[in-house]
Design goal:
Strand content: 5-15%
Structural class: alpha/beta
Number of strands: 11
Bound molecules: iron/sulfur cluster
CATH class of one domain: Alpha Beta
Low-confidence stretches: none
Radius of gyration: 22 Å
Order of helices and strands: HEHHHHHHHEHHEHHEHEHEEEHEHHEHEH
Strand order of the largest sheet: 3-2-4-5
Distance between the termini: 74 Å
């Protein structure tokens, strides 16, 4: 038999195996874990984008510990050995799996060379940790218990709506629902206020979700699928019952949760949610393009912009996939890979660059290559040192641009950066809603 005939025969003889993008079964990602070639594309930002070594790393966890097991390439091997029953859970193994903000940087890095599902594999590893009775971490368990008892991550008994002020107009019934999320409802209230005022300024009537509660981001991110699904079902039902067409959020974690992970949990497409999920960046951009939001007030600041993971590489629409894998790893039917292309990269910059007086000074790690601050996805509850380390590293990069203000699009990022910035440092942290509101001629925060 000729070599060509042999190849053809192999192609037809190789048995096909089922393959699904389903994080509830780690074996769906066995091929991905087996075929990680340890090239470290998940660790380094491509050299074509990076002029030097100073900001060349994309993975916060591996930068923190400088040990392969903390990087995606290490965890791909750990996952394989867990799956084969060759490894048992231990405290240290749990630390390796959970000391990670699941920021998606490894996933977009890996998919530049190979089409491995690195991000979903890391999510599936956490689901397995919970399925095996080992995970999540103690602090994360407490947060999930708080959500169950009080509907918020803090276990607070106070109203979620104490951020509201008399000047904010909220409708009883509207086509748009504003969902501020736990952090802006309880801690960074000025961000919820700025967003609500920006919606008012944009002529967008909005209501709040009846019996509003947490989006469940922490439960999902740490692998507690049962708790996260229960929250997803309740929230989606509440939203559908309002009859509103659009849900606006101001938190990047809530955005990713509603737009990507609720459909993932409910095994539906993002398009089938029954309503559109928009970050305030998108709502403001639409209003600005329609001439309803004017950004003519000068904002005389030099700023740099931090692409929060949830509004950048992690927000591509979700679409369930089931197929078969065959010869040489080929899969049928064809799969549209999620590569972080739907991130709100350009519209954010379009808004900022159209504000008179404002100068945008980009960092080297930007858009899908941005370094995560490591404040979200449950990380800060059990690994505050990692959150502080990555935020400090990102602040260093931000300040090196010569900007006066770091602008971001998520209260988790704002809060994490605030917590590491020395008090005497005049460099400021702001949310994009605060900047846009100022450009619209209204003060809405400290900037
Ligand atoms: S980029 Fe992908 S293949 Fe390369 S080491 Fe990382 S996980 Fe493995």
């Amino acid at each position: 038999m000729s070599v060509i005939d042999k190849i053809h025969q192999d192609r037809f003889d190789t048995p096909k195996t089922p393959f699904a993008l389903d994080i509830e079964d780690l074996s769906n990602f066995e091929y991905d874990m087996q075929h990680c070639i340890k090239c470290k594309g998940c660790y380094w930002v491509d050299h074509t984008y990076m002029p030097g070594m100073e900001n060349a790393v994309r993975c916060p966890s591996n930068l923190w510990k400088e040990f392969d097991s903390y990087g995606a390439f290490g965890k791909m091997r750990i996952g394989l050995h867990l799956l084969n029953g060759e490894l048992e859970w231990s405290d240290h193994l749990l630390e390796l799996i959970y000391a990670d903000p699941l920021c998606g940087a490894c996933d977009v890095g890996c998919k530049r060379n190979l089409d491995l599902e690195t991000g979903l594999t890391l999510e599936a590893l956490r689901v397995k940790a919970v399925q095996d009775g080992a995970g999540p971490m103690p602090g994360q368990k407490k947060v999930i218990a708080n959500i169950r008892e009080t509907g918020n991550i803090y276990g607070a008994s106070a109203s979620r709506h104490s951020w509201m002020t008399e000047e904010i107009r909220v409708a009883e019934k509207a086509d748009t629902v504003y969902f501020p999320g736990c952090l802006s409802s309880y801690q960074k209230k000025e961000l919820a206020q700025s967003t609500a005022m920006l919606l008012n300024r944009s002529g967008i009537d909005f209501m709040l979700l009846p019996e509003e509660s947490c989006c469940g981001n922490v439960a999902f991110s740490v692998g507690d699928i049962a708790a996260a699904r229960e929250i997803a079902m309740k929230n989606v039902e509440k939203m559908r019952n309002t009859g509103a067409k659009t849900l606006v959020v101001s938190c990047a974690e809530c955005y990713r949760m509603w737009k990507v992970d609720y459909p993932k949990l409910l095994k539906i497409r993002t398009a089938d949610l029954g309503f559109e999920v928009k970050h305030i960046i998108e709502a403001a951009h639409d209003a600005w393009q329609e001439g309803k939001l004017s950004l003519r007030n000068p904002v005389n600041l030099q700023i740099t912009y931090h692409d929060s993971c949830g509004v950048s590489r992690l927000c591509d629409d979700w679409e369930p996939y089931e197929g078969e894998r065959g010869w040489m790893g080929t899969i049928e039917p064809g799969l549209t890979r999620r590569r972080g292309r739907q991130g709100l990269y350009q519209i954010t910059r379009e808004l900022l660059e159209n504000i008179p007086g404002l100068e945008l000074k980009e960092m080297q790690r930007t858009r899908e290559n941005a370094l995560c601050c490591a404040g979200g996805r449950g990380t800060s509850f059990d690994f505050p040192e990692l959150s502080a380390f990555s935020a400090t590293e990102r602040l260093r990069e931000a300040e090196s641009t010569g900007a006066e203000v770091l602008v971001t699009a998520c209260p988790w990022c704002v809060s994490n950066f605030d917590s590491v910035k020395p008090e005497e440092d005049p460099f400021e942290i702001a949310d994009i809603a605060q900047i846009l509101l100022k450009a619209a001629g209204q003060e809405g925060g400290t900037v």
